[in-house]
Amino acid sequence: MPQVVVLPHEELCPEGAVFEAEAGVTVCDAALANGVEIEHACEKSCACTTCHVVVREGFDSMEEADELEEDLLDKAWGLEPESRLSCQSLIGDKDLVVEIPKYTLNQVSEKH
Ligand code: FES
To answer: 24 — alpha (psi -120 to 50), left (phi > 0) or beta?
Structure first.
């Protein structure tokens, strides 16, 4: 089974996390199942950007984002070329290293 490394995030997993996940499961579901509470404000229906992650390793092993995901990602805080919405990205057959950005748009709008 592919291994998923979640890099440390101040609030969600200060120590980072490492777990195994089955291919075909979304990054979001796998993280939630392993105690990393990635935000998922739209309940994983590809209608928000709170589940945004940056895939630091293994990006190419996942299926490409569809148009809807890309459009939403454009609005995400801290967008990078290897950004994905974790509720839409299925784990492939390779290990992944995932970073959860410091903020989501929800948090940014709450703070400003
Ligand atoms: S939880 Fe809203 S797009 Fe993923």
So the answer is: left
Position in ligand 1 atom list of the atom nearest CA 28: 4
Domains defined for the chain, CATH in brackets: 3-99 (3.10.20.30)
Distance CA 29, CA 44 (A): 9
From 50, 66, 104, mutation site for ligand 1 pocket: most ligand atoms within 8 A of C-beta: 50
Quick: pLDDT tens for 10-57.
999 999 999 999 999 999 999 999 999 999 999 999 999 999 999 999
Q: Element (H or E) spanning 27, and its range?
A: helix 27-33
Helix (H, G, I), strand (E, B) or coil at 111: helix
- What does DSSP assign to residue 61? G
